[in-house]
Each structure stands twice: as C-alpha cells, then as structure tokens.
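Entry 14: structure prediction run for DNA polymerase III subunit gamma/tau. Input pasted below.
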Amino acid sequence: MSSTTLYLKYRPQKLEELDSEAVRESLKRIVTSGKLPQAFLFAGPKGTGKTSAARIIAKILNCEKGGKQLSEPCGRCSQCISISEDSNLDVVEMDAASHRGIDDVRTLRDAVALAPAKAKNKIYIIDEVHMLTTEAANALLKTLEEPPDHVYFILATTNPEKLIETIRSRTTTLLFRKASPQEIVRSLGRVVKGEKIKVSTEVLALIAKAASGSFRDAVKILEQLLSEKRKLDEETVSDFLFQRKTFDVDSFLLLLAKKETRNAILEIDSAVSSGVSVGNLLMGTLERLRGGLLAVSGVGEETLEGFKKGEIIALIKLFSKTVKELPNAPIEELPLEVAAVEWCEGKVKVSNPLPSQEIGAKIIGEVEQKPEERVAATPQETAVQDMKSSIAPSQPSPSFEGVKEVNDEVWKRILATVKPINTSIEALLRAAKPLSYDGKNLTLGVFYKFHKERLEDFHHRRILEEVASGILGSVTRVTCILTEHPVKKIQQLETPQKKDVVLTEGGDEDIIRVAKEIFGN
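Run finished. Output tokens:
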C-alpha cells in the first residue's frame, strides 16, 4: 500500500468522480453553461468533498487543453498536475481558522490585483471562511463585490450561518450534505478497485454506516482495517467497528429515557475511560437530540424514540448548559454526570409546548412563580400583571385566528396589546405599518432607520412576535424593512417671520418621548 493516505490518493480529480450526486450534477450544469461565477460558497459538514470539488473547479478554469467551452479537466497538463500536487502558484489555498485577521485579508486583496504567474486565472480557496473576524470579512466583501476578471473565489465552510449575510449574497452557494450510505459505498468502491482489494458490498455498507456521512472517515476506517491486516469479512469488520465505537449516543439516550441513573453513569464512565472527551460526547448527544427535535417538528427523519417534544427541548437546554460548565469543572465528566442524575431523578423541569392557538394566553409573563419565590418586579413586569388583571371575563378579546392579512383592526389590536407591556415599543410601532402577512411571517414597513434598529433589538422583537402570535393565532415571525413615510396631513403654525412651519402629527408625542428617553432632552 502506498505511503500516501488512501483518501488523498483517491481524491476525486474530475466532476464525474465526485461522489455526492447532488453536488456533482449541480456543478456539471454550472460548468456546461459556459460561464462560471467568480465566487462560490461550498457549505457542508467535514469530509463531504468541499476541498476536492474546489480543486476540480480550479483545474477546469486553468486547464491548458480546455478551450472556450468549459468541460472536465484533462488531468495531464502542467496546470492540472500542479494543482493536484498543491504546487500551483496561481491556486492559493488559505485556512481562515489560522489566517483570520484583517491583515491577512489585506494581503490577499493586494495579491488579487496582480496578474496570474503562469495560469489563465487566479483561484483563491478559503477554507472555514466563517472563522474570519468581522473586520476581515468586511474587507473580503469589498473584493468579492468587484473582483478582477481573472480572479475566482471558492469559499468553504462547515458553518455557513456564521458567515455574514452580505458575503453569502454575493456567492453561488452549493450545499454539501452528509453523504448517503450509497454514495459512500461508491467512494469506497473506487478505492478498493484501485488497490485491487476483494471485498463485498455488504462489508462496504457496514463501513459506510459507521462513517456518519463522511467520505473521509469512511476511507480512514478502511485504511485502518488494511493497515492492521484484518480480514474484510462481515464478522471481522462488525467486531472492529463495535470495538472502535467507544460511545453509542442512542444507547445513552435510551438509558436517559428509561431513567436508569446507574447505567447512564456507567456509560459515561466507560466512554471517558476509552479516551472520548466529554466535550465530544456532549456534542454528539446534542447533534442527535437536534435531529430528534427536527423530526418531531416535521423536518428530517431522525426520529428519537422514548422522548416527547418537551423532553427533547429540556434535554437540549440541560446539555447546552453542561457544555458551558466544562471549562471550570474540577473533574471533566462531573458536570455531565450531575446532569444525567438530575434528569433521571426528575429534577429537570419539562414544559409541554403549547399549540399555536394557545400562545396568546401565555405570551406575557413566561414563568409563573410562587409568591414566596417572586423577587421585586420590574416596571415592565408590573405592567404585564396589571394588564392581565384588567381584562374582565365579560369583555373577551376579539379573535383574529386564521386571518389572511393584518388590516387596520388587527394592527390596532396589536398596538393596544403591546402598549401596557412596553410603551416604547408601541410608540416605535406608530412609525410603522404592516405590509404583508402570510400566516407565518409579518413584514412591517418602518419609516425611520432608528425605529427599525430599535424594533429589531432582540428583546423588543421577542415581545412583538409573542404579542403578534397570540393575536393572530399562529406562531409569527416579524421582519422590519425601511419604507417611505406616507404622505401626512401636517399642522402649520403661523409666525411673524415664516409660515408653513411643520410640526409633528398629533399622535407622535410618544415617539418624541421615547427619543428623549434614549438620547436625553
């Protein structure tokens, strides 16, 4: 077996060799269109082929035998060979995790202006681009907006949500999803064929299942089996994979579902003794819980047996808190052991999510405390309680459940409900108007930039969304956009010197008061 790792040795060199079917077909369509975008964003988990695809695109752009019509790289010219060997002067690979500062990006910007050394185009492959600092990301944005004709960017990331939206909007995004078992078997098949190894499809399927959607991890497992000279039959490979799997997330969660405290603690101890870090153990568990939460919410198929939706949410919150406690723990596994005990002994509060039509009754005052446990209420909390007590049973609130649009009547009801909770929000909303509502998303047109920024504040938006959800009878997300102020009838004041002095509308005094509260008199 060659000294080169199998993953690098059998890394895809052409589009046709890419094992992710969705990515392979998307890139084929883009390439055959004859015009490649100057900025790509490859987003997806580790080991799914992002860097391999980036290098193939670089070869297509610089292949010496490629004509005006773009196609597969030849793989034999000096450009293709040097890119494969990572020695091409005009294809620059940059790791944003270690070169994340603004000085690094400024150096890149200066280099971008230079002509290619030997190739037709310069290609910059920036891995983990989400790791760039805000200043560096903004500096990169300026280059992406108007790159020279000979420059192409291929950005890669495992966390696209952490990348600033303005960069994402200027790139052509391709999603690299976790590989399916069939795609991994295809990838492994290319390796075993090249190494002239006889192995059944069933064995390759076992390895594929253990790789958790990563092409790279699958090849590493195969390579370890070969280096240890193990038989490649189902029984031997199954035993190897079982020994290798030092922590079974599903088994651990099943113990928590059954509230088996002792066995859950033993499972943690066994994993730690086998060399698994508690941080990795927790992250694996949280990923599995996330899959279960998405499944019960109608997204994805990673169902989680033994837990209701409220229990999954409670466990996610519990383990997220545990992750934060790890750095200061005197014993690494102690916070996780405590969390497992608290869960199994029923000391973790589980709340059942309410149907959307019941949210209105709960939007104000999130947690009811016993009188002896209540601390001094804030003015906002006092207003909330006053509002609750002021609603007489004989005066039921009008129901707007199932409305198709937010008309004047509905909008006035939202304003009236917000006012006793937070008068500042209500005053800000009077400089806004509802533009559209699709049953889930309420878009507001806001007349002033300052008002928009205040309404988008997390605290203010949360209150507004909860009020809107309760009144509209459906979980509602609020989005604010700037819009022109409507033509208004103005009041005039005659003075000896000048007429037509514009004053505010009669209803704008509260807006002025809010501004005074923020900026001072």
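Notes: Residues 354-402, 488-507 have pLDDT under 50 and may be disordered. Will compare against the previous run tomorrow.
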